[in-house]
Design brief:
2 copies of one chain form a homodimer. Chain A is mostly helical. The first copy, chain A, has helices spanning 3-29, 36-42, 57-81, 88-105, 107-116, 121-125, 134-147, 156-176, 185-199. Chain A contains 9 helices and no strands. The structure holds a DNA duplex.
DNA sequence: AATATTAGTTAACAGTGTTAACTGCATTGA
DNA sequence: TCAATGCAGTTAACACTGTTAACTAATATT
């Protein structure tokens, strides 16, 4: 009888309930203030009950990261999709803006994924379809732009890594140091994106 | 009689002893593994004794940051000083390389200063001579390069911020994600620095 | 010499992640 | 149907964390 199947579903439901509570707490209180006891309290269980569903706190973190990374990919793809132009240079530019926008719109997730737990990224992505991973997406756009003559022909992987570095730089600095006397934000971002493209031309 | 003076010196000595122990522990064990009790143990005092000399752990952190930032400035200035050329473009380039080198040579300090506690930077620098602050240094080199016609004339502050962003990007990514399939390091850094300069040309 | 100051101590609080031992209920096998 | 097993969820506890309060003992001031 399907009692085993049902049990499996119940476990999955409980896991979901736990990570939902974790996500909610994380978004309101910030990750460093999310404790096992607080998660448990949120769903009316004892803290140790969680350990029947997750080996430890890190496993919950991984799910948080997955959640954020999914939002990240959506933002990236939407950013490119919203770009009317068929010009691969314009489309590349759109993806660069989309990356920064994700960071500014979801600073907690950006910090969690790209600043505090970058070393976990492999673990977060392993189950994803390769074609959908952020860096692959960027590399493809760079290749297209090179083939079209919009960018000078370099090693596309290195060029994409260079772009990522510059994107990560401006995004993480704007997020983690908002009180610095930055130039007016929009103008600064435009300047950075244009410089990045020009640097590869 | 100088008993007050002596006492003052004793206090300063004790503070020094504490932050020296903190620095040592930090460099061997990493900051997140440095606790008040471990610092105290290192200098044969009880943990609570430290609170007679520092208000809390954050005050010790600030001193750690100051220590690291002094090393950072030294590296930056040495990097420029070692540059034989008088060409402001070359000298700017030397400072960019020096920034990245500092990060790679002192990853723990780079993380502590520029990743985990960037918002404290103001506090770390307030007492320093303005002319010696890292960002001012960079801005001056950018201005010189612009005046010499090596870089196109933009807003020098924004250009310097853009350079900083790109530098921070590659440095922090290399440090916090060493296992990523980066292009061969030296070549990647060269590529990034050249792209950055070209982007401002 | 009596008093006040204070460096350094221990005990304690409130919190953290996590493990061990236990309870009571639900499913299983005879 | 009844005993046996498995296991979800509990409480208690451990070894930590930063930090405060109360105390001791030695020093400095009057």
């Amino acid at each position: 009888m399907g009692t085993k199947e049902r049990r499996k579903r119940e476990i999955e439901e409980m896991r979901l309930e736990i990570i939902e509570a974790a996500v909610q707490l994380f978004l309101t209180d910030g990750y460093e203030n999310v404790s096992m006891r607080k998660i448990a309290q949120q769903i009316d269980y004892s803290a140790t009950a969680i350990y029947k569903y997750f080996a430890n706190k890190e496993e919950i973190l991984i799910h948080l990261l997955k959640h954020g990374y999914a939002i990240f990919l959506t933002c990236l793809k939407e950013g490119v999709a919203d770009c009317k132009s068929r010009n691969p240079g314009e489309r590349l530019k759109a993806s660069l803006y989309a990356y920064i926008d994700f960071g500014l719109k979801h600073p907690e997730y950006y910090r969690l994924i790209f600043v505090e737990n970058l070393h976990q990224l492999q673990k977060v992505m392993t189950e994803e379809d390769d074609r959908v991973r952020g860096f692959v997406l960027l590399t493809e756009m760079v290749m297209a732009a090179m083939n079209e003559g919009v960018l000078k022909k370099h090693d596309a992987h290195m060029a994409a890594q260079s772009l990522w570095a510059s994107l990560h730089g401006i995004t993480s600095l704007l997020i983690t140091f908002p009180d610095f006397h930055w130039h007016e934000k929009e103008g600064f971002i435009d300047f950075q994106v244009n410089s990045m493209i020009k640097g590869l031309t």
